[in-house]
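Subject: Re: docking follow-up (calcium ion)

Dear J.,

Thanks for your patience while I sorted out the input files. As discussed at Tuesday's group meeting, I've set up the holo structure prediction with calcium ion included as the bound ligand rather than trying to dock it afterwards. The sequence and the ligand SMILES I used are pasted below, so you can double-check that they match what you have on your end before we go further.
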Amino acid sequence: ATATANELITVTAVDDPIVAINDGLITVDGINGALEFINVLDNDSLYGLPINSSDVVISYPTSPYFEFNSDGTVNVKPNTPGGNYAFTYQVCEKANPSNCGSAILNVFVEVPAIAIIKTATFNDIDNSGFANAGETITYNFKVTNTGNVPLSGIMITDLLPGIVVSGQPISLAVNESDEHTFSAVYTILQSDINNKSVTNQAIVKGSSSAKGVVVEDKSDYLNNLEDNPTVTALEGCLIKVFNAVSPNGDGDNDKFYIRGIECYPDNTVEIYNRWGVLVFEKDHYDNISNTFKGISEGRTTIKTSEGLPVGTYFYILKYKDSDAKQHESSGYLYLSN
Ligand SMILES: [Ca+2]
Ligand SMILES: [Ca+2]
Ligand SMILES: [Ca+2]
Ligand SMILES: [Ca+2]
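The structure tokens for the complex came back this morning:
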């Protein structure tokens, strides 16, 4: 009777074996990893009932990126390469080792990534060929989804004080680029011209549509893989004297223009008439408020604030550069109406 009962149980086991069901496709975060993102036994059964992991032995393939636990849970390690993974596991009943089933765990490892390239265009508004304070730099941005999942909420920031960034948040599909949504404008300061360049870097951020993982990238001026700031060279400190002055208010040569003198505030301009009499003298000549417009001015000039007669004058320009080295140049100045 006992033997018959045992036979019956064996027959029952064959009729209700372990049923292992495939798992997935499950998306996991390959950047940060995840602990126990699935229990492969949850949808499996033993004799028609949920499996208690202590009743079975699970065997898995090996993987450098995944950890398979004896209770059926699975971990994915941080920095796991993106892509699809398939693992066949086998589950066998401890009490009856020939009672086994197998199924496949399918995992998609998402690795969101983003890259930004920032390029600069100097806008020489007065077409002088040189940078002047108040002129601008326009920045263009190319943003690319370099990861393996769609990204949304993509925005850029730029820490350069005074820069104005425009563009609303965007989404990008895998491998998609956008180079029209975002732009920025920066107004050049005299200090930038003195520094001979403007250097800045933007940061782009976006989040994966599936897992909400936020990724960011610092801009490069050339390619997606590097993080070199964008440097805009500004040439505006080369002195050139424009020695024709016609202060008639027509907007042409109305003042004695010394291009680049703004870079060297430690300067003096002296103007002499043909008899060698000092008729104009200014420190900190700047082409704007401290400038010669055909009016006699200065500490030692006899008649101040008086219009000077047309004719040939002589100027002496002295300035110190950023290394405190003294420079001097002189020449004729032609004053007309
Ligand atoms: Ca399963
Ligand atoms: Ca200019
Ligand atoms: Ca970069
Ligand atoms: Ca004029």
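A couple of observations from a first look. The chain has three domains: 2-110, 114-233, 240-335. The first strand starts at residue 18 and ends at 19.

Let me know if you'd like me to rerun anything.

Best regards,
T.
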